[in-house]
Amino acid sequence: MMQTPTIADAARQIAARELSPVELTQHLLGRIAAEDAALNSFILLTPERALADAKAAEARIMAGKARGPLDGIPIAHKDIYGTAGIATTAHSKLLQDWVPDTDATTVRKLAEAGTVMLGKLATHEFAFGGPSFDLPWPPARNPWNTDHFTSGSSSGTGAAVAAGLILGGTGSDTGGSIRGPAALCGIAGIKPTYGLCSRVGILPLSFSLDHAGPMAWTVEDCAILLQAMAGHDAADPASADRPVPDFSADLRGGVKGLRIGVARNWHETDRPVSPAVQAGIDGALGIWRSQGAEIQEVALPSLYDYQAANFVVLIAEAFTLHEPWMRERFGDYGELLRDRMAFGGLIAATDYVQALRMRRELCAATTAAMEGVDLIVTAGAPAEAPRIDDVPKWDNLARPGFTAPFNLTGWPAMSVCSGFGVGGLPVSVQVAAKPFQEALLFRAAHAFEQAAGLRAKRPAVAPKSLADAAA
Q1: Rounded mean pLDDT of 328-334?
Q2: Is 144 inside a domain boundary?
Q3: Is residue 2 a part of any domain in this protein?
Q4: What is the pLDDT of residues 131-143, one digit of tens each?
Q5: Are strands 168-173 and 211-216 parallel, antiparallel or unpaired?
Q6: Are residues 392 and 286 in contact, defined by beta-carbon separation less than 8 angstroms?
Q7: pLDDT confidence of residue 470
């Protein structure tokens, strides 16, 4: 059976006419049919659209008119990304039958790059409530062990990429929703700088914290996807009007001479991580040190401070969006979303303003801590994936995670697989850079990923019948 290639490998094979986009698409559609009943990563499969996209790409390539490295590459979109003429549900009963008239800007840009759209992927309800078992569709499951959690909210993208059902996909990140699933599913995922990717046509959660970005099997694949997704959009008031660099140009430049800071107080004191996560961080630092980077400790504010500010800003802005439906259709939300979102109705204007003040102070402190370094390293997630039926409703409120600080600052950050822990479940390291330094971030993450040699191991998903999945 064909092994699912990386985007970079598939692009090279397609360009050399050694791989047919149509055959690759047919192969993945077959994989999805055989394996996704066990994973629930797709909400909607679009085989007719996929085959039409693949045939069009193949015709362009045969005519010598290839659009670039994404031409003929099968991907799928998180189901908060608007898709013209194709249902966009946010994994919620409230939008179960909603069909947008237009594509999200990033969906359009990826289509213009030649990608093949396989369908729409599971998410947590409105990118916030999950894993939920009382919605029209079940939650996605971790392909390394389907009894375990994917993290969220880009859950379907994490599962589908890890299982090799798609070559890459889109995600959104308001407090860690790209980097969390990347961490627990053992893939690469980047939250770019705030404003680098348009959010027009993507269902919002928190206007000042939402980011759009790619998820894929490798760092290089994320760079290729981000190249197509990034760029100014006048329709997004937060969009950055600046040239988009070539994210792959210096990908193999190495880390010699880079100064890499370690936020030990986060993963060793504020939220001590599992032994496998700590080993992964130590291993990554050892690799970078051996490659010529300078490793030094940085002192950052407590994770609890970032968590407090992030939660108040997020929940206040989210409730502002959802208040009309919360009043009129409260029972149509899933339990997790209802309970979490209702907090927003208790936030006073003074709370929100104080959280914004705290956010400014944390941004200033983060900038000061980064003065002497190029990158910051910490954990992607605190431990291996928990069981999907054992995820506390208020886990992120009770204990801080490692991802929200970079939503508050708007800095680029990515999770990369750093090893495997208990039960063979993946763990990850998180790397962050200063604003608009994605190329540097990719360079360091790629250097580690290549040296670590962890990309040869894929999860073996046991096929499950639709009848078994429904039981």
Answers
A1: 96
A2: yes
A3: no
A4: 999 999 999 999 9
A5: antiparallel
A6: no
A7: 41
The stretch 394-408 carries a mean pLDDT of 90
CATH of the domain at 184: 3.90.1300.10
- Per-residue pLDDT band for 421 (boundaries 50, 70, 90) equals very high
Query: What is the side-by-side strand order in the sheet with 375-379?
Result: 42-45, 116-121, 74-78, 168-173, 211-216, 188-191, 413-420, 426-433, 375-379, 259-262, 294-297
27: tokens are 């192969």
Token pair for residue 95?
């939008």
Question: The tokens of 109 are what?
Answer: 């840009």
pLDDT grade for 397, boundaries at 50, 70 and 90: confident
**DSSP string of 344-406?**
GGG--HHHHHHHHHHHHHHHHHHHHHTTT-SEEEEESSSSSPPBGGG--TTHHHHS--SSHHH
State in Å, rounded, how far the first CA of the chain is from the last one: 29
Q: How many domains would you assign to the chain?
A: 1
Which DSSP category does 264 fall into?
Answer: H
Question: E-assigned strands of 81-147?
Answer: 116-121
β-pairing verdict for 74-78 and 188-191: unpaired
SS3 state of residue 47? helix
Q: Which two tokens stand for residue 239?
A: 């969009």
1 falls within a domain: no
From CA 78, how far away is CA 73, in angstroms rounded? 17
What region does 58 belong to: left with phi over 0, alpha with psi -120 to 50, or beta? alpha
pLDDT of res. 466: 39
In whole angstroms, what is the distance from residue 27 CA to residue 116 CA?
13
Q: List the one residue out of 163, 155, 124 whose CA is nearest residue 36.
A: 163
* 107-152 per-position pLDDT tens digit: 999 999 999 999 999 999 999 989 999 999 999 999 999 999 999 9
Please, which pLDDT band fits residue 398 given cuts at 50, 70 and 90? Answer: confident
Contact 162, 116 (CB under 8 A): no
Domain containing 212: what range?
Answer: 7-245+253-470
The C-alpha atoms of residue 45 and residue 56 are separated, in whole angstroms, by: 19
Helices 438-452 + 219-229 axis angle, to 10: 160
Crossing angle, helix 7-15 and helix 219-229, to 10 degrees? 70
Nearest-angstrom CA–CA distance, 148 and 391:
10
User: What does the pLDDT average to over 283-310?
Assistant: 97
Residues labelled as active-site residues: 78, 153, 177
Residue 268 lies in a domain: yes
